[in-house]
């Protein structure tokens, strides 16, 4: 069985959101066009409490973009984003959400961030995504969404490490480039780990 995991396609990462990912909205039509290729379609949502330690505003005299330590893990400080139940945490209206059978929330604990759809950054808790995919007999995982150089990348790396045949759909994903070349480097890291980086048009040929 083949699964599409749609990562964090949420209003706060799109134009006028709190953590805008350049061209983020471009992933929406691509994802809408490919979802029929998959047996299982699931999504993740970044879903932070307002007190989350990844937000610069929750640290004394710290600014967005600084890197601090939170519970022994390096933490990039972001603008407040994807606060649980807020408008910015919603899916955009033009994303076809009817095909999404389950949503996995991530980053829900105040003191640890979660870039992967599977585990938090300390690998202490899991989101239930792996168990769900196992229960559906999924062997192949296709990852797409936002941000290519953060949550898409870490989800794909964990999927590969968990034993799934793993693909990342490049034109269905957009990155932040927090540091110059982060997107380019993320693609290299994924390829080196054995993840196949593909274009959505290749799905037409295969299935
Ligand atoms: C993300 C930064 C902070 C992501 C989430 O979805 O890639 N990036 N929170
Ligand atoms: Zn976040």
From TrEMBL:
The keyword Oxidoreductase does not apply. Gene3D superfamilies: Isochorismatase-like (3.40.50.850). Residues 3-200 form the Isochorismatase-like domain. It comes from the Bacteria. Pathway: Cofactor biosynthesis; nicotinate biosynthesis; nicotinate from nicotinamide: step 1/1. Its EC number is 3.5.1.19. Keywords: Hydrolase, Metal-binding, Pyridine nucleotide biosynthesis. InterPro entries: Isochorismatase-like_dom, Isochorismatase-like_sf, Isochorismatase_Nicotinamidase. The keyword Hydrolase applies. Pfam families: Isochorismatase (PF00857). One of its GO terms (molecular function) is metal ion binding. GO terms for biological process: pyridine nucleotide biosynthetic process. NCBIfam families: PRK11609.1. Belongs to the isochorismatase family. This is Nicotinamidase. It comes from Flammeovirga pacifica.
């Amino acid at each position: 069985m083949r699964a599409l995991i749609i990562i964090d396609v949420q209003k706060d990462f799109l134009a006028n959101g709190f953590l805008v990912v350049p061209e983020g909205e471009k992933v929406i039509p691509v994802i809408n066009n490919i979802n029929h290729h998959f047996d299982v379609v699931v999504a993740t949502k970044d879903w932070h409490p307002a007190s989350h330690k990844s937000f610069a505003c929750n640290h004394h005299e710290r600014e967005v973009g600084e890197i601090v330590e939170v519970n022994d893990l390096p933490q990039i400080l972001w603008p407040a984003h994807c606060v649980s139940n807020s408008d910015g945490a919603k899916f955009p209206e033009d994303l076809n959400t009817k095909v999404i059978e389950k949503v996995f929330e991530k980053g829900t604990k105040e003191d640890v961030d979660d870039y992967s759809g599977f585990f938090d950054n300390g690998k202490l808790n899991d989101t239930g995504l792996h168990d769900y995919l196992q229960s559906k007999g999924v062997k192949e995982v296709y990852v797409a969404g936002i941000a290519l150089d953060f949550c898409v990348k870490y989800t794909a790396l964990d999927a590969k490490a968990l034993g799934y045949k793993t693909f990342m759909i490049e034109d269905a994903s957009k990155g932040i480039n927090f540091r110059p070349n982060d997107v380019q480097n993320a693609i290299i890291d994924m390829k080196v780990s054995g993840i196949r980086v593909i274009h959505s048009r290749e799905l037409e040929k295969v299935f």
